[in-house]
Design a protein that fits this description.
The chain is built from 19 helices and 43 strands. It is of the alpha+beta class. 28% of the residues lie in helices and 26% in strands. The protein binds beta-D-glucopyranose and 1-deoxynojirimycin. The site of 1-deoxynojirimycin has 9 residues, from helix 8.
Amino acid sequence: MDMNTFGHFDDSAREFVITRPDTPWPWINYLGTEDFFSLVSNTAGGYCFCRDAKFRRILRYRYNGVPMDAGGRYYYIKEGNTVWNPGWKPCKTPLDRYECRHGMGYTRIVGEKDGLKAELLMFVPIGHRCEVHRLRLTNTGTDPKTVQLYSFAEWCLWNASTDMENFQRNLSTGEVEIEGSVIYHKTEYRERRDHYAFFGANRPFDGFDTDRETFLGMYNGFEAPQQVLAGTSGNTLAHGWSPVASHRFDLTLAPGATEELVFVLGYVENPAEEKFERPGIINKTRARAMMDAFATPAQVDAAFAALRAFWDDLLGRFQVQSDVPELDRTVNIWNQYQCMITFFFSRSASYFESGIGRGMGFRDSNQDLAGIVHMIPDRARQRILDIAATQFPDGGCYHQYQPLTKRGNNDIGGGFNDDPLWLIFGTVAYIRETGDFGILDEQVPFDNKPGTEVSLLEHLKISFRHVTDNLGPHGLPLIGRADWNDCLNLNCFSDNPDESFQTTENKTEGTKAESLMIAGLFVAEGRDFAELLDRIGDPLAKEVRGQVARMEEAVKRHGWDGEWFLRAYDYYGRKIGSAECEEGKVFIESQGWCTMARIGAEEGLCDKALDSAVKYLECEHGLVLNNPAYTHYIKDYGEISSYPEGYKENAGIFCHNNPWVIIGEAMAGRAEDAWRHYRKITPAFCKDQSLRKVEPYVFCQMVAGKDAARPGEGKNSWLTGTAAWTWKAVSEALLGIKPQFDGLLIEPCIPVGSYRIRRRFRDAQYDLTLHLSGNPGVRTFIPYAPGRHTLTLDL
Ligand code: BGC
Ligand code: NOJ
């Protein structure tokens, strides 16, 4: 199929336009910029939550819900015997016209049927905890129309886990109230909760339902609600069972007439002493205020304009203008947008992540900072302090923490020995962007325990030391539970299918398992750390440099396989990622990190390693993680060998690590290779929407590799470190705009002749026109100075 089978980019509107509803996988968008967030698919499926997708989930969605994509905010239109939805689902009644535009923080769906046009705009306004839906119905025909419009949402009873696991209890907890046109969901409010949700409309309704079985009718799905089919409402007040919210409006539209309705799906928290209006009756003051804020279409327009201005400002901080439209749209719009979304959610809530399982990753959240720090530095600052506060006094970390409580949890364990170094990575990225050295003096506790505070700088020192305190027999970093690759489990040895590869450690005593990925990371981050210490006059810089030099020597002596960098030593001290191995001879992570760290560059090691990556790892769709893939389970290696060949960590194209090689290539001055690798994983360059399946506007975590059944098929879109890392690769390594502690280093490496960059940097605005001669390694430094600067650079 050709490129635009299912949709195309509209760059001037910053939208992706989906032109048919039956996309190969739901193509979703995210709404929200603060703490109220929504997932919305191209058929209006998905759910919303406040702050935490597990504990404060508002709409019920059955995770692992594809292909059904069942549940969302649905509008049904009934005219005569025809019932249809503007977003096609759930009824799937054929539409005369359908279009979905996913934009920056909003989604617009247009459906048209039999001369009635429905335009639905959905967004989360800034400063409010709600979704606003503006629904415009227009009679495009020549006869008057009488229709019934139904809204529908199904409440999740807050804790998305127990809502699924312990529903016998939940079937007796549901409670609602109705006031005017607002349906309130107050389940469990009587006890410890001080929050409720509501779904309201800005005009009186003609009927309503809050009892799911009455609305749908027994044995019906969302596609055939009995009330809608009958043109009635049950006017039910749910008590126990499963509460939902549905309004009915009976409308008559003259030819050419438009009816505009505004719905607000909101969330409120009340102070404990103001919980109730009267005994048992929730205090609705805040909800009424929110309804009032969006009572008229003009108010909605103003809030929508503010949202657009918010994104204009953010994205305007880095804009490129080249003659490659795919590059421009990726850099200017979608990559930055995805970085923001990934920053908000870490790896918790998507159509591939349930929102109940994984919180915020320590390593993931640090890496995500690199994608957003130029847009929202204040939030990056807070995030760094939150993350550091989950660290232990010895530098080790919980692998993840819960966004609501900001406490570390042991669900995926700890002891991943790369984790501490990412705190240095994130902090350096933040200070280079902002110049805010003051963050280093912030007092931050360990494991969130009051009284244990030390400065952030001390946390960084401890992080660094965590590596040097944990070296193996070759002087290389011990891998611990795992390094960046969660699935290379060298101390696990599991033959019990009920054990988690991440939390099981059957042997650690006497382990010789060492990681070349951490070694490369340590050298690269150690250098940055030393530079940071120099800036603040801290004498530890010298020792850090010494340790870095020792590590480089260890890598050259024990980490080089002849044509590429080894990946690891296993528990017994045997090589992984070596020509000696039967399978898994070459791995990407160590080629990426050791070439980014330029280890052995002078001796030609980096060029050789990059050549090997091209030779063994590159395929049509990108660079695979390892080659050859493992064909059977190897207990000594763990989860990596559990996947069939070509998927995930077993020789999938794990997009997150491709930018490491891209940056390594650029640092070696190999512009053509860097650019080719970049284009292969970047969705805007992808030629086949049907094969890739997932959204053509965002990176996905994994594309099936050359050994898979369908190479090129994408999975796990949206929440992936790929967003921040490709951002770093394209903005810094390819386009060459590299923030430093006191200015911008301009050092491009891209086979594109000329381009313009608009870059906000602290209180400065740089308008740069770059003309590249094609000679690698040409660079210039622009010291930071506030104000506007227009420069033409011949490099
Ligand atoms: C996945 C990894 C993931 C890990 C931790 C594994 O099953 O393959 O990509 O990081 O689980 O949840
Ligand atoms: C996904 C995890 O979120 C990330 O932390 C990890 O590095 C990769 N999987 C690779 O295993």
